[in-house]
Amino acid sequence: MNDEELKRVAEAILFASGEPVSINEMHEALDGVDGRVIRAVIEDLREEYVREKRSFRIVEVAGGFQMSTDPLYGPWLKKMRKSSQSNRLSGPALETLAIIAYRQPVTRAEIEFIRGVNVDGVIKNLMDRSLIKITGRKEVVGRPILYGTTKEFLQYFGLNSLAELPKLKEFSEADIQLPEEEKKEAVEGESSEEIEVSAPGETQRPD
Amino acid sequence: MSYKVKLEIFEGPLDLLLFLIKKEEINIYDIPIAKITEQYLEYLELMKLLDLDIAGEFLVMAATLMHIKSRMLLPPEELEAESEEEEDPRAELVRKLLEYKRFKEAARQLEDMELGQRNIFTRMNVEEYEEEKVFFEASLFDLISAFSKMIEGMPKEIFQEIIKDEVTVEEKVHQLMHMLLVEPIVYFTRLFENARSKLEIIATFLAILELIRLKEIIIVQRSLFGEIEIIRNDVNIKPKVNIVGV
Lengths: 207, 246
Description:
The complex is a heterodimer of chains A (about 210) and B (about 250).
Chain A: H1 3-16, H2 23-29, H3 35-51, E1 56-61, E2 64-69, H4 74-80, H5 91-103, E3 106-107, H6 108-115, H7 120-128, E4 132-137, E5 145-149, H8 151-157, H9 180-188
Antiparallel strand pairs in A: 1-2, 3-5, 4-5
Helix pairs in contact in A: 1-3, 5-7
Chain B: H1 13-23, H2 33-49, H3 56-73, H4 91-117, H5 123-126, E1 136-137, H6 140-153, H7 156-160, H8 169-182, E2 185-187, H9 188-193, H10 198-213, E3 217-221, E4 228-232
Antiparallel strand pairs in B: 1-3, 2-4, 3-4
Helix pairs in contact in B: 2-3, 8-10
């Protein structure tokens, strides 16, 4: 099979699949063509679509390639949909999901420790939507259940892998240690209410 | 004169604290404990006034804040030369707040990503599943989910009627088996259409479970959260249940 044919076969496979197709799966379907060749061929297709301003493109998501429409055409496609789109996730659901995504595997108690509230209902909701799953049990007293994210989670947010999650904002331990003088002021200044207001994120340092 | 109060509803104490910190432009690294405790308690009072449920976690935090405040008012203990400085009593709270803040920010970013994805469509989203495509045996979890949705969907009146004739599980088992002799597939939602009482719904559900146990039927769900189909299990040709002519 020459390159041009290979390109078209790959294109056909991507078109016909609903789910993302991994290089491995394509490698098997294409009688052992080398993975790098497949990747190159898909890149060709991607460039072709951009060049010809097609309304669809090939994205890399959940460890595979998938044909999807350009977001520009979202409004029309929404009208085409037979069933309505799933509801957007609530604030608490997103926060809980974020904790699970970045800290997996994680127990319910660990999640509640960070959020300061009960998460039972949210966990059920996220499980119902197949965005999280049970990944095992923690080997401590009580053997609590551990949660992690699913492949559907990656697809839902358009991620190729967990590595693509945006970096968590960093706050260093050093920011929290207060020098002696400030500590005294903090105690004595209680009644006088003379607290200097500064922009969030800046530590106060005596001159 | 009436007052309109716009009250933000907070899911938890950390939420509320972060809100107060932002509102009062407080430096999170140097929280004026007395001031924030006062405002926090004021807020709880407001919630009580408006008859809002105050979850236990809010009260635990109130106690924590007061504890921190009292520790800060006490003179520092006389420590030996070698021992470390006692940690600022606020430190643990600040750590917790910062940790929570990080995930709140991460959640916001996830939300943006979610929004972006809603404009993108793949063959999965637009097409309806075809009959021959992937189907998988429904799990007990799916069955129970479908059942609870069914119960929710029932109009309230049905539950208030007092039905004279009782329905037994055995009757429902016979009924279902008979239906399956006539049609190879029976749809879950259709089964409950004519249910006249809560008892009947439960009896039907138990009948399904019994037939699954007896391996007389298998249950199938072709799409996520889709209709559940009840199919005769053709491996057993002779039904174990004796069907009396209905």
